[in-house]
Write a structure and sequence with these properties.
By secondary structure, the chain is an alpha+beta fold. Helix content is 22%, strand content 17%. It has a single domain (29-119), classed as Alpha-Beta Plaits (2-Layer Sandwich). The strands form two sheets. The chain has a three-stranded antiparallel beta sheet. A two-stranded antiparallel sheet has the order 1-4. The structure holds iron/sulfur cluster (SF4) (2 copies).
Amino acid sequence: MGSFKLGGMTFGSLFKKPETLLYPAQVKTPYPHQKGHIANKVDECILCGMCARVCPCHCITVDKKAHTWEIDPFSCILCGSCVRSCPTTCLLMEPASTAVAARKHVIDLVVPDKKAASEA
Ligand code: SF4
Ligand code: SF4
């Protein structure tokens, strides 16, 4: 690249809007298939534990007795193995990034007890 062209680009950039955003005050619209975070449609979860077994980061915990499904979004590397292994396809890769947080935390979801609900 010639120095004349480079100088023109540098000069032109002085009058353009910046390419960067003031995240998290400004959030970019995610791309449709962006790997953002893992979500669980708990109504369809059968607590089989397959997602926890295949996760290379051990960030999913399934407690069948307590009917809870837990994920540490700050340890997740968004590999998608859990989504591919879920037999009920209740796990999804959502495009929006994990929400900004001051401290690391796990997301604990209660899975409805369908058996108890049908007996009641
Ligand atoms: S693999 Fe799917 S159905 Fe099984 S525990 Fe995980 S989220 Fe629930
Ligand atoms: S996307 Fe990968 S790292 Fe994240 S929870 Fe699923 S299996 Fe674990």
